[in-house]
């Protein structure tokens, strides 16, 4: 599995990637800008958990052989997107929702780093990220069957004929290392025409399914609009 992961994993599209030097450092509260960052900095417990996580990640980075270090950094980037999505929990009626979400994500990451261990067993956490890229899902799709995930990729519809019954697409990574199939329900003709013309890169949300041995992403929304 590690060999397969290494073959398929490349760098994410620029919008997904975060600066590598920041990955092993705890958050700087002076620069906190998003709801999740502000919620974390307002909680001494979350600040301490962030420092613990950063120290654990830095230790794993030292323990992993050079060939595995890029993959470990990739898992950190995927997890950071999971954590940052806690900003979506912001609520006028529940002031603690973002902090609780951040605490849950922090606990998950600390546990993941524990399972990776000094042996750098990255396979132990390969199916635990909610935000991935097409390369990663191509390598680990079967482990995600039945799970909801957001995949950062460009999209190319199989048919641009607005009358076509072919409701399939290909998700492509920025480096073109691997593609992943997507299926979807009917969509308005104008939306199909726009997707065919633009082939945008975005986070495509859906559920991973498997039929007749084929694994694909069943899209549940297109650019934030439910299907």
Could you describe the 3D structure shown?
By secondary structure, this protein is α+β, with helices and mostly antiparallel strands. It folds into two domains: 2-125, no CATH class; 131-226, Nucleic acid-binding proteins (OB fold (Dihydrolipoamide Acetyltransferase, E2P)). 38% of the residues lie in helices and 19% in strands. The protein is built from seven helices and eight strands. The strands form two sheets. It has a five-stranded mixed β-barrel. Helix 3 runs antiparallel to helix 4 (69-84), helix 3 (44-63) runs parallel beside helix 5 (97-116) and helix 4 runs antiparallel to helix 5. Mean pLDDT is 86; it is low at 1-21.
Can you describe this structure in just a few lines?
With 227 residues, the protein is of the alpha+beta class. It contains 7 helices and 8 strands; from the N terminus they run αααααβαβββαββββ.
């Amino acid at each position: 599995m590690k060999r397969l992961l290494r073959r398929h994993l490349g760098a994410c599209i620029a919008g997904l990637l975060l600066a590598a030097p920041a990955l092993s450092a705890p958050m700087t509260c002076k620069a906190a800008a998003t709801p999740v960052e502000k919620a974390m900095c307002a909680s001494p417990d979350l600040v301490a958990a962030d420092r613990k996580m950063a120290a654990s990640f830095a230790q794993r980075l030292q323990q992993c052989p050079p060939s595995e270090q890029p993959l470990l950094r990739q898992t950190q980037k995927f997890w950071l997107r999971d954590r940052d999505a806690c900003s979506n929990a912001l609520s006028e009626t529940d002031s603690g929702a973002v902090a609780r979400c951040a605490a849950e994500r922090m606990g998950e990451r600390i546990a993941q780093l524990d399972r990776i261990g000094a042996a750098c067993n990255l396979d132990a956490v390969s199916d635990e990220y909610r935000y991935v890229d097409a390369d990663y899902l191509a390598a680990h799709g079967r482990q995600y069957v039945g799970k909801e995930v957001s995949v950062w990729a460009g999209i190319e519809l199989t048919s641009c004929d607005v009358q076509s019954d072919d409701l399939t697409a290909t998700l492509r990574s920025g480096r073109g290392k691997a593609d992943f199939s997507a299926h979807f329900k009917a969509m308005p003709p104008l939306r199909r025409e726009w997707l065919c013309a633009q082939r945008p890169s975005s986070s495509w949300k859906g559920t991973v399914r498997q039929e007749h041995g084929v694994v694909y992403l069943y899209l549940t929304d297109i650019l934030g609009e439910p299907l």
